[in-house]
Write a structure and sequence with these properties.
four-stranded parallel beta sheet; alpha/beta; elongated; single chain
């Protein structure tokens, strides 16, 4: 057996064969039977070719061409099976892939040019849904011989799809589009720094191109009578193959909706989530309250082992004189009606409910079979409402547990959008009124001897739908989804406990901390206000307050755009301040403000890292005189530093402040100098502006995260800590310093 496998970016074809095929549980029984001989036996019987049906000539080298030329039977099942694949990708793989393979098979063999005596028999796996959205019988016949054939020039469709990619790319590079991607990236990441914002903006541009091509593929397919780009490109792929096959013997096998195995290699086996699984799990979780469909309509499902057995039976028939078609479907032989499917799913999940995070059983909804348009409108309104609430929450200055509400809103919005995508992608399959005939398949079954029937069953009549769904398919879906199926609490440590254990593990090298809102509930503005007000009388304090309040909106806007620019602008307030006086006041401020606003749990965490032998590093945009009292707590401190001249501070930084991507570079240089690994290090920060710092390490911790970071941390599975100030710490409305006192002989005088 020769297997043609597309190499991965970091994995050869041979490695993918071992990892993704032979290690699959499909081979568990054979692995048990052969024991230690499994690897040797599969190596003896299998050859692997590196190739790609998405490339001209399949990307074969001379050895691959020679191996392919010696094959006498070729089963082509490579496809982009996603219903929402970009149009150009679906065209290259689904439409042109079969023709490319036929061309390679018909070409002379590589090397010495020898091949087997006859051209190989090509079995091309297509889909029954090439029939499109037509009603009534869909016979086992070539598309050119059917009444529902759409006359579309496949060559023109290929050219248009390729041009669409180029057009979308050009459109995405227009200045107004690039500005929109940049704004969206900043909305997601805040002041995360230029490189991260640029990277995210470029990713958004790529996603925009993909979404445009997905939409174009769906719209083009529907305009020609197919539900989506998958069925459309498979149908045109059949047409192209018939034109390009030459004298190659050809059989087309068209399965309907392939689902988990009835019996082989074991009941419930399936590779990956198929079409129905996401819908079923969303229904079981109570997330999908309605789904379109015709109650008396037929959902044409076929277990995967029946499809495999049918392909093997077709192969055993030998090459046909003329191109042949077999359909493997259940709808006309053993129909599963939509209302019966829903009833079986409802009864099973009522008896075997999933459980929510609180250990409560989830009650599945009763579907009322509404029209697709009504469901789409409901889900679209829900998504827009949640998006508006999410934007509002993101604009509020929330942190910690309150900021997590924004993350939960985003999660609910994504669930609504996912449900809407299911309706858009799969709704037409629940409403289809085509009936796939299997007369030729049953004739083949009649010609199969009894011994082969026992080993290779493919008659859809053998399926008992109640047994299949209750005993085979739904248990398999739940197992693969890894959802909670018992009310009992999870055994072992919680996610938070596992995260804490990981960050404090002995093998960690370095712990890097941000300061503001990570270790203390304060910022550079409060520190400046305390120091600047230390020696002001009441009148000057009032004027200082009014001036500061006027500057706040502009400073906040600058901080959101770029943290470094904000610090440079803000530190100009220190211009001409007496250096020695400010240093002396800073030590008093440490006790009166910094310690009062510190998070005791954060201070303990620094000490815990040091006690475990981890290096500790503080990186902050605060100036050195403010953080100097913290120096004994850390091994090293990297901070901002103001220039001085003639005993006075100059409102200019000696070097750029350590913000954004500069922090990751500081960490990399520090780790290299100390012989440490950032992959074995931890970083603590509170804001999305610290993303470069958090992404630089192997273990990121979001501390009292603001809304954007809370959302990012949830998506990436980062550990989250919510630290609070000491309950007895004094709280002041304004961070003004008390005026200094002057001691006389018998009294304290201000």
């Amino acid at each position: 057996v020769t297997v043609l496998v597309r190499p991965g970016r970091r994995a050869s074809a041979a490695h993918r064969l071992q990892r993704e095929i032979l290690r699959n549980d499909c081979f568990n029984r054979l692995r048990a039977e052969l024991g230690d001989r499994f690897d040797a036996e599969t190596s003896r019987r299998l050859s692997v070719i590196a190739g790609d049906v998405g490339q001209e000539g399949l990307g074969l080298d001379a050895n691959g061409s020679a191996l392919l030329a010696r094959c006498d039977l070729v089963i082509h099942s490579a496809a982009t099976v996603s219903f929402d694949a970009p149009l150009d990708t679906a065209v290259e793989v689904n439409l042109l892939g079969p023709s490319r393979l036929a061309g390679a098979l018909a070409a002379p063999g590589a090397g010495d040019g020898r091949r087997t005596a006859a051209l190989p028999h090509l079995i091309a796996v297509s889909t029954a849904y090439v029939a499109g959205t037509r009603r009534g019988d869909a016979p086992e016949a070539l598309l050119t011989d059917t009444a529902y054939a759409t006359q579309a020039d496949w060559r023109a469709e290929v050219a248009a799809a390729r041009r669409a990619r180029s057009d979308a790319d050009s459109e995405s590079r227009r200045p107004e589009q690039l500005a929109r991607f940049t704004r969206a990236a900043r909305g997601e990441l805040g002041a995360a720094g230029g490189p991260l914002l640029a990277e995210r903006a470029e990713r958004l541009r790529d996603e925009w191109i993909k979404e445009r091509l997905v939409s174009l593929g769906r719209t083009r397919a529907q305009s020609l009578g197919w539900p989506d780009a998958y069925a459309y490109t498979k149908a045109l792929g059949e047409r192209a193959l018939l034109e390009n096959r030459g004298d190659l013997p050809l059989t087309i096998v068209r399965p309907s909706i392939i689902e988990s195995a009835l019996a082989e290699p074991h009941p419930g086996w399936i590779r990956g989530f198929r079409m129905a699984e996401p819908v079923i799990i969303s229904y079981a979780r109570g997330l999908l309250g309605q789904f379109p469909g015709v109650p008396e309509g037929v959902v044409d499902v076929i277990p995967v082992d029946l499809v495999v057995a049918a392909i093997l039976a077709v192969a055993a028939e030998g090459p046909p004189e003329q191109p042949d078609v077999y359909q493997v479907a259940s709808g006309t032989r053993n129909p599963l009606r939509y209302d019966h499917l829903v009833s079986l799913a409802e009864s099973w999940f009522t008896e075997h409910p999933l459980y929510d995070s609180r250990g409560q059983p989830i009650v599945v909804p009763n579907w009322s079979f509404p029209g697709r348009g009504k469901v789409q409108r409901q889900l679209s309104r829900a998504g827009k409402g949640l998006e508006a609430a999410e934007r509002l929450m993101g604009a509020l200055p929330l942190r910690g547990r309150r900021a997590e509400l924004s993350s939960h809103l985003e999660e609910r919005r994504q669930q609504a959008e996912r449900a809407l995508s299911y309706v858009e992608l799969y709704g037409s399959y629940a409403e289809t009124e085509a009936r796939f005939r299997v007369d030729r398949l049953l004739s083949l079954w009649d010609r199969t001897d009894e011994a082969d029937r026992q080993q290779f069953g493919f008659d859809p009549a053998v399926i008992d739908w109640a047994y299949y769904l209750h005993e085979v398919h739904l248990p398999s879906v739940v197992t693969q989804a890894r959802v909670r199926t018992t009310p009992a609490p999870r055994v072992g440590p919680t996610r938070a406990e596992r995260g804490l254990r990981a960050v404090l593990a002995p093998e960690r090298h370095l712990a890097v901390f941000d300061l503001e809102n990570t270790l203390i509930a304060s910022n550079v503005v409060e520190s400046y206000a305390w120091l600047a007000s230390r020696h002001l009388d009441e009148g000057d304090r009032l004027r200082f307050t009014l001036r500061t309040l006027r500057e706040v909106p502009g400073m906040l806007a600058l901080d959101r755009r770029d943290r470094g620019d904000f610090l440079r602008a803000f530190y100009r307030h220190y211009d001409e301040a007496p250096a020695e006086q400010v240093r002396a006041d800073a030590w008093e401020m440490f006790s009166a403000l910094i310690l009062a606003k510190s998070f005791p749990a954060g201070i303990r965490r620094v000490r815990e890292h040091r006690s475990r032998g981890h290096r500790t590093l503080l990186i902050t945009g605060a100036i050195d005189l403010v953080v100097e009292p913290l120096r004994p707590l850390f091994d090293d401190i990297v901070c901002a530093r103001l220039a001085e001249r003639d005993g006075r501070m100059v409102g200019e930084l000696v070097e750029p402040p350590p913000t954004g991507e500069a922090r990751s570079m500081v960490m990399a240089a520090y780790a290299e100098a100390e012989g440490l690994s950032l992959a074995e290090s931890v970083a603590y920060a509170d804001s999305s502006s610290d993303l470069p710092m958090l992404e630089a390490v192997g273990h990121a911790v979001a501390v009292n995260p603001e809304a954007k970071l809370a959302t990012i941390a949830r998506k990436r599975g980062w550990h989250v800590e919510n630290w609070s100030r000491s309950p007895g710490a004094p709280r002041h409305l304004l961070p003004f310093a008390p005026r200094p006192t002057r001691h006389t002989g018998t009294a304290v005088e201000r």
